[in-house]
UniProtKB/TrEMBL annotation:
<feature type="binding site">
    <location>
        <position position="326"/>
    </location>
    <ligand>
        <name>CTP</name>
    </ligand>
</feature>
<feature type="domain" description="DNA/pantothenate metabolism flavoprotein C-terminal">
    <location>
        <begin position="185"/>
        <end position="395"/>
    </location>
</feature>
<dbReference type="InterPro" id="IPR035929">
    <property type="entry name" value="CoaB-like_sf"/>
</dbReference>
<keyword id="KW-0479">Metal-binding</keyword>
<dbReference type="InterPro" id="IPR007085">
    <property type="entry name" value="DNA/pantothenate-metab_flavo_C"/>
</dbReference>
<keyword id="KW-0460">Magnesium</keyword>
<comment type="function">
    <text>Catalyzes two steps in the biosynthesis of coenzyme A. In the first step cysteine is conjugated to 4'-phosphopantothenate to form 4-phosphopantothenoylcysteine, in the latter compound is decarboxylated to form 4'-phosphopantotheine.</text>
</comment>
<keyword id="KW-0288">FMN</keyword>
<dbReference type="GO" id="GO:0015941">
    <property type="term" value="P:pantothenate catabolic process"/>
</dbReference>
<keyword id="KW-0210">Decarboxylase</keyword>
<dbReference type="GO" id="GO:0015937">
    <property type="term" value="P:coenzyme A biosynthetic process"/>
</dbReference>
<protein>
    <recommendedName>
        <fullName>Coenzyme A biosynthesis bifunctional protein CoaBC</fullName>
        <ecNumber>4.1.1.36</ecNumber>
        <ecNumber>6.3.2.5</ecNumber>
    </recommendedName>
</protein>
<keyword id="KW-0456">Lyase</keyword>
<feature type="region of interest" description="Phosphopantothenate--cysteine ligase">
    <location>
        <begin position="190"/>
        <end position="403"/>
    </location>
</feature>
<feature type="binding site">
    <location>
        <position position="278"/>
    </location>
    <ligand>
        <name>CTP</name>
    </ligand>
</feature>
<dbReference type="InterPro" id="IPR036551">
    <property type="entry name" value="Flavin_trans-like"/>
</dbReference>
<dbReference type="GO" id="GO:0004633">
    <property type="term" value="F:phosphopantothenoylcysteine decarboxylase activity"/>
</dbReference>
Length: 403
């Protein structure tokens, strides 16, 4: 079988050196990679490096090997085009269909999925012109990965850092595995919650749960690879931020509610995968609760936390917004799940059995997805990524037809 053909476009930013790591991951995983740098990119990493790492010739010119018509053939033959780093200039050229070098010509002729991994200073990323260009590219079906937050050139810090090459590689791998030409969530905004909330008792103790957040992260990564703009509201996971995702970090159920409702204001779908504490202490002790000499134990009064899933379903921010919940059950799993689906009023409910050694912290999951129309979709035991893909497959036909 022929190797998947990937075009790695490299534009002229200081993060170009990180693309070497992405190239290594692509080639070592069995992809045939052709690097197409811009002239500016070669100021940061030379053509010899790209050629040696890829095993393929490197050119920036449409005038070289003209008989092979490279400005057309490279894009036509590709299974995936990924531009990393994608500068503000490159995003602008791609959005407006300019074709003044080999890379921009390749982007115009490609009929495969296209991924842009932006890298630039925060001010450039946030400029209205760049945001309009990104919106245009996403509307056309391109996957534009959200840049990371961190150290930039010099002493500057902020949003605009190239996502970790390993994360970009995972996005590319997911897209190639799906084998589709256009990401089916392109132009959509989805919100995913992940992890487990913690309700403080005193400065050193809290009420919490065993949720690792891995299923929520799998959902966020799958949606990003399918072209969505993703907001991930995470609670106490300790997992690195995934590439292509805007991450909001929270701790308690009240904080998670505030963040989810804010993000859901313009979202096409909200998936509540986080394990939200049902109760919190009625009062917070400002000092550590001490043991008493009489051997007794303190009485902790609890109050109910807000029901975020029911609130989202009852008061949808947009007409046709799809709301998905999760139900972690320990007994009478399906019966409890069906009752919860009716009670919450959401469109889909992912029901799974949990326990000390089941699901929590694991890389695998098994579930049944219940729908408000009575449909039930079993998902056999397997990677949490597989369940994530099934959830989005079920969300897609329920999305409103206009974006």
């Amino acid at each position: 079988m022929s190797k998947p053909k990937v075009v790695l476009g490299v534009s002229g930013g200081i993060a170009a050196y990180k693309a070497c790591e992405l190239l290594r991951r692509l080639t070592e995983s069995g992809h045939d990679v052709r690097v197409v740098p811009t002239d500016s990119a070669l100021h940061f990493v030379g053509a010899a490096t790209w050629s040696a790492l890829s095993g393929n010739p490197v050119s920036t010119e449409v005038w070289e090997s003209v008989h092979e018509v490279p400005h057309v053939r490279i894009g036509q033959a590709a299974d995936l085009v990924v531009v990393a780093p994608a500068t503000a200039d490159m995003l602008a050229k791609a959005a407006h269909g300019l074709a003044d070098d080999l890379l921009t010509n390749t982007l115009l002729t490609a009929r495969c999925p296209v991924v842009f991994a932006p890298a630039m200073h925060t001010e450039m990323w946030e400029h209205p012109a760049t945001q309009e260009n990104v919106a245009t590219l996403r509307r056309r079906g391109a996957v534009v990965i959200e840049p990371a937050v961190g150290r930039l050139t010099g002493v500057d810090t902020g949003k605009g850092r190239l996502p970790d090459p390993a994360e970009i590689f995972e996005v590319c791998k997911r897209i190639l595995a799906r084998g589709v030409t256009a990401p089916d969530l392109a132009g959509r905004h989805v919100v995913v919650s992940a992890g487990g909330t913690r309700e403080p008792l005193d400065p050193v103790r809290y009420l919490g749960n065993r949720s690792s957040g891995k299923q929520g992260y799998a959902l966020a990564k799958a949606a990003a690879a399918r072209g969505a703009r993703v907001t991930l509201v995470e609670a106490n996971t300790g997992i690195p931020d995934p590439a292509g995702v805007d991450v909001v970090h929270v701790g308690t159920a009240v904080q998670l509610r505030e963040a989810v409702l804010k993000a859901a204001a313009d979202a096409d779908a909200v998936v509540m995968a986080a394990a939200v504490a049902d109760f919190r202490p009625a009062a917070y002790a400002p000092g550590k609760i001490k043991k008493t000499d009489d051997g007794g134990a303190p009485t902790i009064e609890l109050v109910r936390n807000p029901d975020i899933l029911a609130e989202l379903a009852a008061d949808r921010a947009l007409p046709g917004q799809v709301v998905v919940g999760f139900a972690a059950e320990t007994d009478d799993v399906l019966a409890n799940g069906r009752a919860k689906l009716r009670r919450k009023g959401c469109d889909l409910l992912v029901v799974n059995e949990v326990g000390e050694r089941k699901t929590f912290g694991s890389e695998e999951n098994e579930a049944v997805v219940l729908a408000s129309d009575g449909a039930e979709t079993p998902v056999p035991y397997g990677p949490k990524e597989a369940l994530a893909e099934t959830v989005w497959d079920l969300v897609l036909p329920r999305l409103r037809s206009t974006i």
